[in-house]
Every structure is written in structure tokens, then in C-alpha cells.
Amino acid sequence: MRIAVLASGRGSNLRALLDARAAGRLDAAFVGTFSDRPGAGALEIARAAGIPAHALPPRAYADRAAHDEALFSAVADVQPDLIVCAGYMRLIGDAAVARFAGRMINIHPSLLPAYRGLHTHQRALDDRVPVHGASVHYVTAALDGGPVIAQAEVAVRADDDAERLAARVLAREHRLLPACVALIADGRLRQLDDAVALDGTRLTRPLRL
Ligand code: GAR
Questions:
Q1: ipTM of the predicted structure?
Q2: What's the farthest any 2 CA atoms get from each other in the chain?
Q3: Alpha-carbon gap, residue 13 to 147, rounded angstroms
Q4: Residues lining ligand 1, judged by CB closer than 6 Å?
Q5: Catalytic choice (67, 108, 121, 174)
Q6: Which positions in this protein are listed as binding (6R)-10-formyltetrahydrofolate (predicted)?
Q7: 108 noted as active-site residue
Q8: CB 49: neighbour CB atoms within 10 A?
Q9: Which site in 41, 58, 108, 181 is 20 to 30 Å from 170, CA atoms measured?
Q10: pTM of the predicted model over 0.90
């Protein structure tokens, strides 16, 4: 399976994917990493691993649609079977979502459908929820709203602040994302629920990983 990664930030989830491949837990080829931020740590991690790294800053394009078109044309050029959004922080337009329907997944730091969008850890703390976590889901036109493949739960502690909680969630993300990509790369996800990949309907019960 050919995988393209989209990332805006430090790239620890990309590193977790590469570590999983090195450890024999993920049978996949990483064919390109793409970022909207030229300084993203994820691009450095990709280059160090010999993976082509591309920066497409939005300011170089007339509008959001033009940036999306350039980005996803570059992604299409590497002929990925799967696009993994690993900390990609821009909204993805409907045209790109439709172009890669069922072939693009995202990791999000909450137990979806709770806390779509930003500042998920602080919002979970403000609500005093006992359990928080992370989700991997298919990307659809609904922000953080596509079918959830799997989730990891993290207990919230009385003395947590957003930073401490984020760190524990991130540690779980580093196991969750490679496990989900491996499910898809090995063709096992379709055995678990064909409907997820093929028609985009929501799993009745996301996997707990
Ligand atoms: C991760 O916590 C990921 O879940 C989150 O960004 C972080 C990226 O960290 N993604 C989102 O918030 C997407 N809306 P990383 O760059 O170290 O992988």
C-alpha cells in the first residue's frame, strides 16, 4: 500500500508510523509527505527517512480552493492508495474530499463525536469529563465528522491541565494511528465492516484500540 501523509506540525504521529513500519508492524510504502507549513517538523522527519517532502504554503495561492487543488494534485501525483492526515490543521475542501473519498483518514484528539475542531483537551477539562482520548476516522465533508474507525480512551485525572492531558492522549495516538493504518493496509478493515470503506456509513461501534 502506498501512503501519502499530510501534516502541519511537529510530526510525532508521522514518526510513529515510520517506527511501526521499521518494527514490522506496518507493511506500507511512504511515497510522500505534504505540508502547508514549510517549517513543519514533519517535513524534517520525512526527509531524514528518505521520503519526498513537499511544502505548499497557502499564501502562494489565490484562495483556499486554489491551494487545495495544488496540494491534492501534488498528492495525486504520487499515486497514494491511502492519505493519512497526521496533524494536518487546515480544512480540506469538498472537491478534495470527494476526489479521495474512502481513501483519506485523519487522527483527531478527542473521542468523536465529542469535541470536533480545536482546543479539544481544554474543552474536555472544562466539561469535567472522566474519559477523553483520540479517534481515527475517514475524512468526509463534515469537519471531524466522518465514520470513526477506532478510538483510544484516556482517563482524565483530577490534577490534569491541557498540556498533561494532551501528552497522555498523544502517547495513545502513537499506537492508535499505526494500528488503524495497518488494519487498512492489511485489508482487515473491510472484513470488520465493509460499509465503512465502501459507502461511508458510520460504524455502530468504533473499535477500541
Ligand atoms: C495530534 O495530537 C493530532 O491528533 C492533532 O494534532 C496533533 C499533531 O501532532 N490533530 C488535530 O488536531 C487535527 N484536527 P504531531 O504533529 O506531533 O503528530
A1: 0.99
A2: 48
A3: 20
A4: 7, 9-13, 42, 86-87, 89, 107-109, 134, 170, 173
A5: 108
A6: 64, 89-92, 106
A7: yes
A8: 16
A9: 58
A10: yes
